[in-house]
Amino acid sequence: MGCVNGCTTGEPVSIFLYEVAQGTEEQTQLAKAAFKRMKTLRHPNILSYVDGLETDKSLYLVTEPVTPLAAHLKARSESGGSGELEISWGLHQTVKALSFLVNDCHLLHNNLGTWAIFVDRAGEWKLGGLDHVTSDQGEPTSLPPAKVVNPDLEKYDPPESPNSGGEKWSGDVWRLGCLIWEVFNGPLPRASSLRSLGKIPKQLVPHYCELVGANPKARPNPARFLQNCRSSGGFLSNSFVESNLFLEQIQIKEPAEKQQFFQDLSENLDSFPEDFCKHKVLPQLLTAFEFGIAGAVVLTPLFKVGKYLSAEEYQQKIIPVIVKMFSSTDRAMRIRLLQQMEQFIQYLNEAAVNSQIFPHVVHGFTDTNPAIREQTVKSMLLLAPKLNETNLNQELMRHFARLQSRDDQGPIRCNTTVCLGKIAPYLNAGLRQRVLTSAFSRATKDPFPASRAAGVLGFAATHHYYSVTECAGRILPTLCPLTVDPDKNVRDQAFKAIKSFLTKLETVSDDPTKLAEIEKDVTASGQAGGSAATWAGWAVTGVSSLTSKLIRNAPAGSEGATAGNASAGIPASATGAANATEASHPADEAEEPAGDRWDDEDWGSLEDPEKAQTDPDDWNSDWSAMSSTQKKSSVRTLCMHKHIFTAVVSFAELCIYVESMQSLYCDWFCFCSIAGLSKAELAKKKREERRKELEAKRAERKAAKGPLKLGARKLD
């Protein structure tokens, strides 16, 4: 037997060759009989005939690619041994093929043994060795018995004589018992060894004993033996056999049954043989996706099976399916793809990512489902190294700018900041410093504490991308106010970052010649470097895994309680940080180029036009004598002094309001309470006061008129 490539399709096959000159007359007769049977017998568990050629000198029998069972078991034992799951399904197939011959074709095999079983690429057992097949109707045959051709096979013959009156299948099931013994214990030395059970599993022992029983009439029909072993707790009753049986009948199963099967399949794949997963499960998964009979549930088992494929096989079989999946409008499909992108990203080439995948992925940034937006942001960590200049520095930055400033979910804004810090090494050098400074500055004013911490960590992790001038003029003024942030974690990270930047400035101040060395990465081309690892370290130690622990465990309402340049209407949410909902942002405006967009965003200013000249503790000074700039500066100083970072109303509105209420709110703490009111609360307070005034006027009018008399008409 040898394996060659098929002449037409290129698919591998197995070729069985018999040379007439080298065999005896009996062997030639058996070879021709087997050739004839292989052409006429068709069954999923019988070795498949592909082609054949018969000449005066030789016989060629072409079948599906297979390996003899003995060689397969030997290879398995050398690599750790065949598992019981694999053997259970193999025996199931062998008995099913034998039952087909005995019960449906009314034939007897007469040659069952390890030499008659072959294993295909999927690990499935196929029945062959049809040399001695005869009819069970008592018709005369000219074929010689197996022991005549090969005397070593005599030990596999049943102990009774051929005409002992047993069932017609008694000889075949006896040999089935011998096959089971050899599968678990190795080659059978003698017939008496069948009494020693050896390594035969306990669940199989009672049924094995029936097969090799001395009474031929008590030996079960192959179909009954299969049924007994499939009963609850039987050797052939397990998840592997059940999965195989379902796959054999998958075409006639209901859609709901297929859905449930693929959903449960991923849990069992780890215990299934590798060859079975590659050659039997994978084709069914690909077919299920192609015809849309399973949806997103095929993804998890598909990627699990993909681990067994070589890079070339993955490109041929999995990648075309994945590319097609990204164009799906099914949300479940899209989010599964994003969640499991790490398993296949290394197989995607840059051309496919930029032209076929990224254009579909970016739709997730504007999806109404927060989970999809969040997963889309996280997926950029894997896609960024493969994106081209336009997609990375323009398209992606445009979406990040909108998400960070307008998304109503705090965790998504936070993850956007985290992601931006991690993909910083890939950004264009001319755009990077401007984008990072503006984006992280914006994050430090976010109402969500985790976002503010992420902004600080972003500055620290990407410190080598900023010039000394940028550090002193923009970054340190942004970080300093965070040293009095209401959230302790933000304060701690701010102090660490400030010390880091100050050390950098001091180094240059002490030795100006080091400036070039310190700023060498500012204009460096975008490459994957150590900064990503640095960022990851900061994220883990400083924020305790932003995307899982800190965000998910933040107290409800914390987002609205501590704001920096937030809008006025931020409600305290009680739905948990992962789904914390803040004030909605304005509708999207016309998009601009990425770099300009981020710079033009209202990030907030940290520098006062004039230094505050008014002592915050001397609030009773002549307010009306101050200029508008001095009033604005005084209010800012007052808020900063009392750690009030919620600029809930514009300074102009706040100054006018304070001026009108000066006589009532000259006390320091009273003012602080006003400064902390939102627009909604101020409006509500005004409505309440107006309502009380109207009620008081009505009461005065009623008191002036006196009580109504009986029958009098009420005129007001």
Automatic annotation (TrEMBL):
Biased composition (Low complexity): 566-584
Name of protein: N-terminal kinase-like protein
Species annotation: Astyanax mexicanus (Blind cave fish)
Region named Disordered: 133-167, 556-625, 693-716
Keywords: Coiled coil, Repeat
Function: Regulates COPI-mediated retrograde protein traffic at the interface between the Golgi apparatus and the endoplasmic reticulum. Involved in the maintenance of the Golgi apparatus morphology.
This protein's record includes keyword Iron-sulfur: no
Pfam families according to UniProt: HEAT, Pkinase
HEAT repeat placement: 357-395
Sequence ranges of Basic and acidic residues compositional bias: 693-703
